[in-house]
Amino acid sequence: MKLLKKGKKQKPSGKIDTIKKWSLSIAIIIVLVSFVMIGIQTFYPDPFQGKHCWDREEFQGPRFAKDCYLLSNTTTRDHCISEQSAENEKWQKMQNECQKQQDAVLRIYNRNVSIILLITGMLSLITSLFIVSVSSVAYGFSFGGIVLIFIAIVKYWTELQDFMRFIILGLILAVLVWLGYKKLDSRKEEQNSKKHK
What we know:
Blueprint: H1 2-43, H2 74-129, H3 135-156, H4 162-196
Helix pairs in contact: 1-3, 2-3, 2-4
């Protein structure tokens, strides 16, 4: 009877320990990803700070030709229409050129951010190998690394050619398999050392 009572008492405490471990792992994932993203925003911010060409003062469009129809004088109205049409065309060309330049700069920026995220993601996965003693922290770093790699791929994925996608995914897969084997080997070594003790 005493053994049964002891067993019953141990079950809920085991569940609580598991919840605590996973809570810590999830917290590490969230904080790690947030830390890296805020670090990028702080030390390598968006060159345009989220402002598009149409948000900038110098690219604000002129009055549209339809507003000219509100004028009562026919001669003034016709002059207004031709003037505004020419202005609108000029403004549209300027904005298109601005957008092309901005897209080119943002493409390079997104590529660099993706590289930073890939490197930090890989480092996070490698770090998880050396924290074998605390499994919840190790899981937090490993899953956090996977999330960072996923964000890196999504951010610049559309800009990559098919062969580059293939190479990147192949490299990531190889690293993940290698890390998995390393983790299993370290656990086996830990179990063997415990048995010998």
